[in-house]
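Lab notebook page, bench 4
Experiment: in silico fold of construct C2
Operator: M.H.
Input chain length: 342 residues
Purpose: comparison with the prior construct
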Amino acid sequence: MFSEAPYSLLPDFMTIDWQPLIAIIESNQRFVLSSHVRPDADAIGSEMGMKALLDSLGKTVRIINPSATPDHLAFLDPEGRIQKFGPDVKLDAAKDTDVHIVLDTSAWQQLNDVRKVLEATEAKKVVIDHHVSSDDLGALEFKDTTASATGVLVADLAEALGVTPSREMADSLYCAIATDTGWFRFSNTDSRTLRTVASLVDCGVEPNLLYQQLYERSSLARLKLHGRVLDRVTVEFDGRLAYTYVMRKDFKETGTHPSDTEDLVNDCLTIDGTHCAFILVEQMSKQMKVSFRSRTNLDVAAVAEQFGGGGHKKASGAMLPGPFDEALKRVLDALKSALDAS
């Protein structure tokens, strides 16, 4: 059995009964961790934090994702331990494990080809997630939609296991939480969030250094892309909506990548009077990825679900077929209806 927790992390916010997962961890040795396509810092940070947690318990852990780690998050995995399903690891090897844990999503669409692994494996399946939107993955779910980030839940689990986070684990979880709360400026930042990150700072995290890694390593190409995209910002519906878009040719002409569009949608919300915002990003497949944001009671997760996507009430996403003009019209029509009804 694991020892009693040496410190109190979240005394008033333990909303998940972790005992079934603790029993699984105690009785199994080999673990695979996965997260969603186009992983953000909550996905990568939660995975790396979970890996560090399981490593500390003497477990064998692999991380197998449907997408490669974005360049700007590579510092969270300096040894390149995260594998991409397909190029780095094939189905037979990926499914050969005792437990497969999915973090920061519970939607089939978000798992892309990793779905094949989950459908083929005989391993126990576990989901740790904080998103509202959900599919039945045939897994034991540990979900808390009130948590500001999946990183909060992994920290919660560490406390339940009696594990004090190492510096590596603390850094990963801090990045997960800080980014999913907009560096603690979004409305999902609550006292539980702040208690969690305070405890991580006590474990050695230096927030200023992590901020530099996340936000102060921009390339000139990325800045030029942002300038181009922000120049396209348009407001609609009496200023209640702001949106912009990125086409594939923009990446080619500026020498950038889709990951360089992260956080651009949030800039649209800085316009006074806006209730919601979105950005359309053309994919290599010519599909259009849409990211929604809201700063009112407008539920953009419900809007995203109309297109087979999902997420949080105030931050969600979906994938639409092209071409751009048709996708844009569909999104504008859906948001007009949502705004009129709110």
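Observations: The longest helix spans residues 324-341. Confidence is low (pLDDT under 50) at residues 1-12.
Next step: discuss at group meeting.
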